[in-house]
Design a protein that fits this description.
single chain; 351 residues; alpha/beta; six-stranded parallel sheet; globular; binds NADP nicotinamide-adenine-dinucleotide phosphate; binds zinc ion
Length: 351
């Protein structure tokens, strides 16, 4: 397959910093859209993958899966997009299109294996996929999202992973008026969970390990914010919540949070701690509680989420950086020192 050389930022091993490199992208095929990347968010999953936390990283790796850009070329059979359109690509760039999951619009669970925007085997061009820390992206229009005209485009990029990852379970477990929703961890995902759950009409309580985020959680829209090591404050929430979304990226005790659920409540894990989590039998048996998980969301649901966020004026609180500062950004992300999402201005890669 004919390819084009594209400038990118990536690394050849988990011990090396990210640096400029050249990758090959396929030439635009009949159903493909090519975009110039304007902004790319930095997700904790990018950090997990460059550190090879899950032992499955395909090197060299170019991270980035909150990709916002403008269409620069389209294949002859493209019908949804025109040159100049503002578009987004999140985590999913291909799937089998005919299994039960694909038919139901949950392509993230494709039975033949979904292709992710980076670090995935690329069934079209061979090799593996390279993410959005680069000048351009090419993929099938079926997996491209239409970006509404957000005033702050850069801060809309994180919706493409962080936004959908929290919107999907909030929809599935029916966050809304009369529901008491907990959000665990205020990072990229957590701060958007607060905004989205509030926009859905739920009462939101935030649990954080960071004293500096208590006040901010209220500013972000939470009704209550609790320091998770304050046992007395925590005890006020015993058996109070219908649903808790757990965004924590490292090993932690989920039993504490199962105890905050009402009967039939659910803790849904979206964070990806590399280590296994332990659950005490009585913490789920008493009260018929569920411990569940959720992984991003399908393409249609991602478009619904973008339209919902546009309608409710929701974008990320972001810190815009140049690509040359990406290694410092990853160090800060690892320490939890970001309020609340880094977004790379990809014009900096052209310099
Ligand atoms: P992030 O910005 O780093 O936020 C994670 C938050 O978790 C931190 O801000 C911190 O919040 C809390 N935290 C971190 N370490 C902790 C610890 N040891 N104990 C307790 N709390 C801790 O990360 P993110 O981008 O939001 O991603 C969060 C997780 O979701 C990552 O594991 C990522 O890979 C995963 N993820 C999953 C999906 C999916 O589809 N399932 C999609 C995207 C990301 P406080 O300071 O408030 O305590
Ligand atoms: Zn992500
Ligand atoms: Zn499928």
């Amino acid at each position: 397959m004919e390819t084009i050389k594209v400038k990118a930022f990536g690394t050849n091993s988990s011990n090396d910093e990210l640096a400029e490199m050249v990758i090959n992208r396929r030439k635009v095929q009949a159903h493909d859209v090519e975009m110039e990347i304007l902004y790319c968010g930095i997700c904790h999953s990018d950090l997990h993958q460059i550190k090879n936390d899950f032992g499955a990283t395909l090197f060299p790796i170019v991270p980035g899966h909150e990709i916002l850009g403008r269409v620069t070329a389209i294949g002859e059979h493209v019908s949804k997009f025109s040159i100049g359109d503002l578009v987004g690509v999140g985590c999913i760039v291909d799937s089998c299109r005919h299994c039960e999951s694909c038919e139901e619009g949950v392509e993230q669970f494709c039975e033949e294996g979904v292709t992710f925007s980076f670090n995935s085997v690329d069934k079209v061009s061979g090799g593996h996929t390279f993410g959005g820390f680069s000048n351009t992206y090419v993929c099938d229009e079926k997996y491209v999202l239409r970006m509404p005209g957000f005033d702050n485009l850069a801060s809309a990029a994180p919706l493409l992973c962080a936004g959908i990852t929290v919107y999907s379970p909030l929809m599935h477990w029916q966050a809304g008026p009369g529901k008491k929703v907990g959000v665990l961890g205020i990072g990229g995902l957590g701060h958007l969970a607060i905004k989205i759950a509030k926009a859905m009409g739920a009462e939101v309580t935030v649990f954080t390990t960071s004293p500096s985020k208590i006040e901010d959680a209220i500013r972000l829209g939470a009704d209550h914010a609790v320091l998770s090591n304050d046992n007395e404050a925590m005890s006020n929430y015993t058996r109070q919540l219908h649903f808790i979304i757990d965004t924590v990226s490292a090993k932690h005790d989920v039993n504490t949070y199962l105890n905050l659920l009402r009967h039939d409540g659910t803790v849904v894990l979206v964070g990806l701690p590399p280590e296994a989590l332990e659950i005490g039998a009585f913490n789920v048996v008493s009260g018929r509680k569920s411990f569940a998980g959720s992984n991003i969301g399908g393409i249609k649901e991602t478009q619904d989420m973008l339209d919902f966020c546009y309608k409710h004026n929701i974008v990320a609180d972001s810190e815009i950086i140049n690509i040359q500062d990406v290694n410092t950004a990853f160090e800060r992300l690892e320490k939890g020192d970001v309020k609340y999402r880094f977004v790379i201005d990809m014009a900096s890669l052209k310099n």
